[in-house]
């Protein structure tokens, strides 16, 4: 499914609502009530509905005025082919009345959630069934993987209000950093630096800054021993030049802010095991996905913010 809209890098603590501005806790409570109501009548676990909505919050702007969810169903999904295409490919639309007002409204949260839930249930209610339904809806592997992983995070913590963050190194460690995003780099050909370097001693613990799922772990000739974590805001967090990984960390693990994932090193710039070509430091990068493309953005302002938050 194709989308047009602007991307937001981080979730605001308040959203625009019909009655004005409401606190994030109230907003997340309202969302949870809708997810659980829809789950009860469609048999689709609430965390999948929540994860779809969370994903679309990163593809579109925050929910439109008067709404709590951000899901924007494609008109073709909603109304069907309307005689414009062969019914074999596009039969009836999936738009349904979810709140009993005898109307089927594309901008009504209950109608949208009920329609999406009913569509998913048509494939079945197991994890594999839901995965197939998501692929047929979005037609993109990374999108399906992101939604499935976000659902796991929501299920584990039993909430969608996961706003805590942590600085990636212990504040008591001897470290230093500045904005290095966009600086020139020469190894492997001329390129730009897609992150912030935090210099510290060998072996200093490296922590997850966010809630998410370990998506990548292993060697990269540029980043050395590295770990990639995708969070619930569809941002990929890249931790590179590690000396070692935490003993029990593996791909697919759910992490939260403060979980130790490895230690500072100087690995990289060559085949597996290469180390010492530069001073020990953590390379920390952030990449946003908008449903079609993924790109790097400057993590420095976020690191400064999380450092201040961790101190308080």
Automatic annotation (TrEMBL):
InterPro entries from the UniProt entry: Cell_wall_metabolism_enzyme (IPR050570), Dup_hybrid_motif (IPR011055), M23ase_b-sheet_dom (IPR016047)
Any GO MF annotation of the entry: metalloendopeptidase activity
Secretion signal, residue range per the UniProt entry: 1-24
Keyword match Nucleus: no
Pfam families, per the entry: Peptidase_M23
Keywords: Signal
Record-linked CDD domains: M23_peptidase
The organism's place on the tree of life at top rank: Bacteria
Location of the M23ase beta-sheet core domain: 192-290
PANTHER family named among the record's database cross-references: L-ALA--D-GLU ENDOPEPTIDASE, PEPTIDASE-RELATED
Protein name stated in the entry: Peptidoglycan DD-metalloendopeptidase family protein
